[in-house]
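Contributing new records

If you add data, match the layout below exactly. Sequence lines come first and carry their own label; structure lines follow with theirs. Keep one chain per record. Anything else will be rejected by the validation script.
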Amino acid sequence: MRTAVALLGLLAFAAIPGSVLPQRNVATDPAAVPQFMAEHPRISPWLDRLGLFEVYASPWFAATYGLLLVSMTGCVLPRCVRLWREARAEPPKAPPRLDRFEHHRETSLDAPAGVVVAQAAATLRGRGYRVVVDSEPDAPCTTGETGEAVPGQAKARAEVRAEKGYAREIGNLAFHLSLLVLLVGVAGGKLFGFEGRVALAEGDTFTNVASSYDAFTPASLADVDGLTPFSMTLEELETAFAPTGPRTGEPRKFDAQVTYRTEDGAEASTSIAPNQPLDVDGTKLFLSGHGYAPRVTVRDGKDETVFSGPVIFLPSDGSLTSDGVIKVPNAKPTQLGFEGLFLPTGTPMGGDVSQFPGLLAPRLDLVAYSGDLSMDTGVPQSVYSLDKTSLTEIESQSLRIGETMRLPDGAGSVTFDGVARFGNFQVAYDPGKEIALAAAVLLLIGLTVSLTVRRRRVWVRVTQYPDREGVQVETATRSLTRRSAPSEDTDKLMQTLNRLAPDLAPDLAPDLDPEAVRSLS
């Protein structure tokens, strides 16, 4: 157990750089690591050599996790066997001296011994105890102080041993098992799952294959060729913003109305909203963001339409001021490129910042370039940036919907046709998530039970002396937790026994061995 705790602490310590430093293969922010390396050129190579930009995929983190799993298995399984045996065990026999334990009570009763034993057993069972009755018909009489036998004197004795709070051991058992299952569930998700990101403009269709993702991060054992077959079309993105008040422009709604088709050809429509993902056979699609995609038409110098459709612009502030690029490598006689700034509500006095996130007065500011887009060099490029090394700026203009910018020297034109919306979807498949969730719930339940339930034992010793009338009754309680046992069970037991009448018959003890009842009575 000490080894497992040490490894758990080491794993938590190893996860710190994974939380502080940007990580590779994170679909939500794939550019985070290159940006960090550009801002910290001296320390970044050393961090990269240590694997601190991919902590959770590093060999040393995997080795620590594997050792923790092995250690927890070797710790938990034998402990579970022991806890299961303890939960099924009978209460132990009473020690020779009960006066050393909590809530010790001693009294004499003028009632048959068998009835006293039966009543004590019934009372304790009624209060949730597991009860066992033992009898010793001819036991030597011993003193209470020294424990030495007194010659020539005999007694009959019966003991009621009771215990409750076994649920505490069941809680311990559930806690330890769920901790092991939680580790297995998390490991399963990290080994067989994947995470991806895709941005879709209204009308676009996404097919669940690796090449369709904008960013795709599979786990080491993920079946990339066996992804759940389905496709989804973004029909409409419904948005709403607070129009007035201190929170003007705050988003009130953005829901994606989609149509999806599964492998068997079935088609259905649904809505994807924040915290309401689309689940297709375990692959979940979350709506994580939204923005605008201006619709443009580009004609080249030969008046041929070389591009037409929406272009996703990425928001840069809460008012959805967005920027993006348009690349037209097929334009003739020279390639064309455009850098753009889109303002959903652009006013003459507002400058380069949108005054409201809603489409009240959309404006598209474009800077046109001609030359070589450097797209055939073999070096990958981002669709959201423009390599201007071999480009020349030729024109700039602010456009409203329906307006056209004419390029000089007959290079072509670009028309601002309208505005579509786009949604950013986070796609995830985590086969161990449900297992981990169930294990976490069971872990909390087991921990709560083990901390709140008090396991305790109660002993009742009934002694019949041959030379005395009635019986001698002695009770005591022992707590098996750090907290002392409550006294109400012992007090209730003594109150019940003190009300017994002396003329009760021994046949009122049906749950006792008849031979034991006769010997005591």
